[in-house]
Design a protein that fits this description.
By secondary structure, this protein is of the alpha/beta class. It has three domains: 2-59, Nucleic acid-binding proteins (OB fold (Dihydrolipoamide Acetyltransferase, E2P)), CATH 2.40.50; 76-215, P-loop containing nucleotide triphosphate hydrolases (Rossmann fold); 230-288, Ribonucleotide Reductase Protein R1, domain 1. Helix content is 28%, strand content 23%. The strands form two sheets. A six-stranded mixed sheet has the order 8-7-6-9-11-10, with helices on both faces. A five-stranded mixed beta barrel has the order 1-2-3-5-4. α2 (90-102) crosses α8 (273-288) and α4 packs antiparallel against α5 (184-195). The longest helix has 17 residues, at 119-135. Zn(2+) binds at residues 247, 252, 254, 260. Its EC number is 3.6.1.-. It holds the Pfam family RsgA_GTPase. It is found in: Cytoplasm.
């Protein structure tokens, strides 16, 4: 029995990398009976007589997983947001951040197309850059034509598994192309499909870039909060999470409760009003969602 990691899933086969070798495997029949699907990124135990014939015997516990793209055990997500075309959207950025934080994935914020803003307009973008950096996030601001530089992003990929997320049109596919030139045709196809609002059935693969692994498909097709409970939302806002122990009431939702350390921090300017407003908006969404049975 050998251990390895699934780096590609295609047509019922799972390609498992172990050491310097890749083994083509099938899943055990018991997985289907138990409604378990091996995912790209899974650490597995497998048995193989040769590189073309193997069977996955067990899947190790996952630290996280995404539905689309179907990848597990992700270390970081590069959230691509644009300064222009489409305009910078802090509400959407916070939505991505909450989704990623809820999966215990480290975010890196990449703001693209800074050259499409004039100097006065760029001040607003720099304001948000400083705001998110003050929270503790890594924020990179790059020009539309500087993806090959990627704000030094290549160095952040080493020894990590990364996915790229962000709204349509911000440059996710261009970024993937710049990081790995062999992906050009693939990512153009994905970009076109997503631009039309259609889903692609193309397989997902972890490709080696910069000493790490990167999912070759842009991620996060849905941004609802179905998996987040009301009392879990504050944990997805680092600046709220670190202050909530100071609230008078245990289980404070930082909304209407008195003597709330979070609301006090907002009043004192220690938590950005925009971030707190988004927290309240997301909390309301979670309370308003229909129960699923």
């Amino acid at each position: 029995m050998t251990e390895g990691r699934i780096i590609k899933a295609l047509s019922g086969f799972y390609y498992v990398k172990s050491g310097d070798s890749i083994y083509q495997c099938r899943g055990r029949g018991v997985f289907r009976k138990q409604n378990i699907t091996p995912l790209v990124g899974d650490f597995v135990e497998f048995d193989s007589q040769n590189p073309e014939e193997g069977y996955i015997l067990s899947i190790k516990e996952r630290k996280n997983r995404l539905v689309r793209p179907p990848v597990s055990n992700i270390d970081q997500a590069i959230i691509a947001s644009s300064a222009a075309k489409p305009d910078f959207n802090p509400l959407l950025l916070d939505r991505f951040l909450v989704m990623i934080e809820s999966k215990r994935i480290t975010p890196i914020i990449l703001i693209t197309k800074k050259d499409l803003k004039d100097e006065s307009e760029l001040e607003s973008i720099v304001h948000y850059q400083r705001l998110y950096e003050a929270i503790g996030y890594s924020v990179k601001l790059i020009s539309a034509l500087q993806f090959e530089e990627s704000g030094g992003l290549i160095h952040d990929l080493a020894n990590r598994v990364s996915v790229i997320a962000g709204q349509s049109g911000v440059g996710k596919s261009s970024l993937l192309n710049a990081l790995n030139t062999s992906l050009t045709l693939k990512t153009d196809e994905i970009s076109t499909s997503l631009g039309r609002g259609k889903h692609t059935t193309r397989h997902v693969e972890l490709v080696e870039i910069g000493g790490g692994l990167v999912a070759d498909t842009p991620g996060f097709s849905t941004l609802d909060f179905d998996d987040i409970a009301p009392d879990e939302l504050a944990e997805c806002f680092p600046e709220i999470s670190e202050r909530q122990a100071g609230c008078k009431f245990r289980g404070c939702f930082h909304n209407k409760e008195p003597k709330c350390a979070v609301k006090q921090a907002v009043e004192e300017g220690k938590i950005a009003q925009s971030r707190y407003n988004h927290y309240l908006r997301f909390l309301n969404e979670i309370y308003s969602r229909k129960p699923r049975y």
